[in-house]
Structures are given as C-alpha cells and as structure tokens.
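Entry 14. Ran structure prediction on the chain below.
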Amino acid sequence: MGLWMGIGLVIIFVGIGFVWFKKHQQNEQQKQKSISLINTEAIEQITKKVKKTNPKSFKKQMRELENQCDRMNAKMNQLDQAINDYFGDSRISIAKFANSINGGIGVFKQNVDRILSRIQIFDQDGYEHLFKTHQEYGEAIEPYQASFEAVDEDLKVNQEILTRFDKLLMEIHKLSDPKLDVLELEAMQELNTLIDQTKLYRTQN
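Output, structure tokens:
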C-alpha cells in the first residue's frame, strides 16, 4: 500500500512539473516572438525627471508636460502591441515603424530636456523682483517672456508628435495588407516630415 502511494505521489509531482514546464516554455516562446524595437526606456527616464521638477513660475506648463509624458508612455505601449500583433515576427516591417517612432521619441525627449533646462536656469528671484518694482510692462520682462514662449513652443511640438502617433495607431488598426510598405502610410509620412522640419529648424537657429 505504501509503495503504491509513493508511486502515485511521484506521478502527481511529475505531472505538475510537466504542466509547469509547458507553460514556462510557451511564455518564453511568446516573449521571443514579440519584437520590441521601440525605445520606451527613454520616455520612462524623462518622465521620472519631469515628475521630480516643481518650479514656481511654470506650474501650468509642468502639468501639461507631465500629462504629455504619461500619454507618450501609454502610446508607446499601444504602438508596440499593435505593431507586433499585426506584423508578427516580421522584423523588417517592425523596424521600419520603429525607426520613425524612435525618431519622434527623440524629438519629444529633446523638447522635454530643453524645457527642464530652461526652467533650471530661469531667474525666479529676478522675475519676482520685476513685479515687486512694477517693471513687468517694460523691456526688462522680455527675457523672461522669451523663456515662457520657448517652453510653450516645445510643448506645442510635443502635442503635434502625440497627435501623429494617435493617427499612426489608428492607421495600423485599419491595415489589411501585411505586405504594404509602411512608409507609404500618411501618418508615417507626416511624422517623418515633422521630425525633419524640427531638426532643420534647430540647425538654422
């Protein structure tokens, strides 16, 4: 009786081990099948920097910037999932998407870094002094106003990038031909144009 009970327990344990091994193997195969070429780590890093920044005179801009970073993180995960679901293990097609998406991420990250840099060097004491001495309507306010305008412009470009990612995500969900050249997608062309225009503008200025 004890012998048969021992054999039964061995069979049960072997069965449990086999089931666990199969599940583990399936999970590993799924991970290998999913190709992630999107640089999500860059967005995660700058999001942490943004959440740690709490300036006195840019509170509205920082709320918008934090919201943009959170939305960008969500969109990257959605795009990564959508691209893998549609193209499967086609690394070439996924790479074409990833190149443009990472280009957009690069511009977005540069904008965030520029905003944080402007906030860091902003002379808060000097800005407050203008109001205390009633100079806010004179030429002395112009350098400070230029900082606000530059931050607003970077936020505007970030919003344009997010809008193009939204459009790209919708176009991916509408695709019906896996052999389609992804560079022909309207949203992809618009994204690449925005990236090129931003780089050209910064080179000239």
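The helical segments are 2-33, 40-52, 59-87, 91-121, 124-132, 142-174, 186-204. Will compare against last week's run tomorrow.
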